[in-house]
Amino acid sequence: MRVFLSGDTRTDWQSEIMDMFQGHSFFDPRTVSDMPYDKMAEIERNWLDQSDIIFAYLNESNPYGYGTCFEIGYAVARKKMIIYIDEKQVSSSKWLGQHPMHTFDNLNDGISQLKRLLDQGNELVANLIIDSLNHQDFTVLIQRELEDDTVSRIAKKIYDDPNMYSRLMLASKMLPKEWYDWNLGYLLQRLNPSIIIDNLVKYPENFYHSEGVAWALGLIGNDDERIVKFLQDQCRLCEDYDAWWCAAHSLQQLNQGDAIEILKRTLVHDEWQDINNCFANIGSRPATIGMLRKIDKSNVEKVIDFCLDGLKTLKGRHLHNVIWLLERFRLRDRRVIDALMELHESKVKQGSSVAHRVVEAFGQIAHPNTRLLLEKDLSEADYFRTRAWAAKGLGLIGDYKSIEPLERALMNETDPHVLSTITSALYNIHDQEKRKDNELLCKANWLENGMIIDETNKWYWAPDVYDKFSHAEDPESISFNLAISMCPSDVKTVLDLGSGTGRFLKELLEKKESISRLYALDNSKEMIEYLGSKFTQKYPEVTLLHSEISKIPVEDNSVDLVVSSWGFPSRVWDSEQSRKELSEVYRVLNNKGVFITIGWDEDFSDEMTEIWYKFVMEEEYFFDTLSEYRRRKKTKIKSPRNCNLTIVKKNLKVPVKFSSKHEAANVFGHLFGYSAGSWVLENNKREYQMLVSITKDNKESIKRILNCEIA
């Protein structure tokens, strides 16, 4: 228990009491008596809040006792257990003695009462708190963090009292957080889940702000759909950023998704869409998630420069947040490694927790240059999480030299969490397949977000990566051959919309010898440059067009055949844009012209839909089940390609097939981000099924679709 020793600081009575009761914690005002009064008062108020008992001794030699009067008054206001010894026995001191629960006129009687109370231990504290709760005084849970044993005793006594659940939970809406929210969370973990759920259902709007409630729901071991729904709503509403953060991690505890992915998809407030605002507020949790949402190839260097500068200039949570970001980016940039190494060494000398945070970052980044540092922290770090991250990093680095330090740590370690991590690390080094997987994970430089961040389909960052994906789609060209067989036999002028890296372009050139001119249109400068390097010299009939589909730079009625493989329309979810682009197709086609598209089957029942569901950031669908996601996607596209094109073939089941799981992981990692690449490796899979459809229309049918009169 914790005891505040109030009274004369010029004598040694405090030391005598502390020697008598060595199994307890004492707050001794003598240690702050030389401080300025304002600082001393602040510290003593904090001690009084944390104390279980106030032992106040007004001895005869104390000239005034003003400090003791203040401390007793504050403790009375905080409803603390007070033992008051009044040796002066004057009128003012006797008046003061009317307020404490235990008052004596000599020190020995006071010490005897202190022994009786200390012998009761946490049972006494629990009973005092329950007495206050029964009188609807919940401020006793604000003052300090409760010990586990005390919380367990309180929970046992109120377990069968549903009214107490309601009062405790609803009080969180009215009281300042201080320690209340976390103490409430400690209690809820030990209480009846059924009664907790009843309150969630009755009064959900009163708990969305509470991080204690959110945190507890992930730990009570109950995945009731009402708990899941509450936590999902808590994330969507984001009334309080700490509660939002805890709710996402609780959903992860309940196997409802990755916490960081949930946070990225539910952070919808406008201010966090501005990366510069995130820079300015880096000390906050939403700022770090906002940066994760926005980071891509175009700004990654800017973000890294900001973080590196922050390592030198920031402190506290701000510094921890930039270290966490560098860890999350997982980039083996030498500047990053050197800066973190320097920070680690400087903070070790200061005894700072920052050094441990750096080790956690190195455990994720897994750069070979950090091996010796990780081995040292594996054996010497006091904090179990630091040792665990050191072991994980050594396993990912995969150097055989680390086997001996890991085996030695395995012999000496006692923490179960660290033991499991060391074991996994040893297998990561010994197992050849795992070594290859981890080598790819460490060297691939996949970003947090891939080229496909959202449903806008921005593929253009790395055409060579997309080219691998393109050639993995229907590798035997069954759907392409079928589409080409539907083309006019004597076609001369062709327009390929959204040419990408030229898969359909090449198929046409090889199989349609009548083609004399082939326009390759793409809105990506990178794709056009890539096409130029592959096609313009070898195929003089190819003309590259850097343009949007809605503004095709080709004359009216000049094209025999318009084709597109996974490129039309440019935004399939936008029906107005789709019709606008179809109008352009109508304009450039001659009277006998044909328009053919290859694309995803629009019932979204294939395996590639699951990839999008898992890894593409689409906030409105995030908490949908896969079946609900598919249903809503299908409903959103009202017709083939969202502009009433004519389906001639559908449900063509073709693979997306890579040469190896490592190629699949590398492509998916670049397209969809780090999580997708690591998921492919975990699932040991190189082939995914896709359902394809083909549309075919002539100028007359397009005219009917557009419902317009054109001479």
Summarize the structure.
With 711 residues, the protein is of the alpha/beta class. The protein folds into four domains: 2-120, Rossmann fold (3-Layer(aba) Sandwich), CATH 3.40.50.1220; 123-257, no CATH class; 270-443, Alpha Horseshoe (Leucine-rich Repeat Variant); 463-706, Rossmann fold. Helices cover 55% and strands 12% of the residues.
Mean pLDDT: 91
CATH topology of the largest domain: Rossmann fold
Query: What's the gyration radius in Å?
Result: 34 Å
CATH architecture of the largest domain: 3-Layer(aba) Sandwich
| Structural domains: how many | 4
Pick out the low-confidence regions.
none
Biggest β-sheet description: 7 strands, mixed
Structural class: alpha/beta
The side-by-side strand order for the widest beta sheet comes to 8-7-6-9-10-12-11
Number-wise, the strands total 12
Distance between the termini: 93 Å
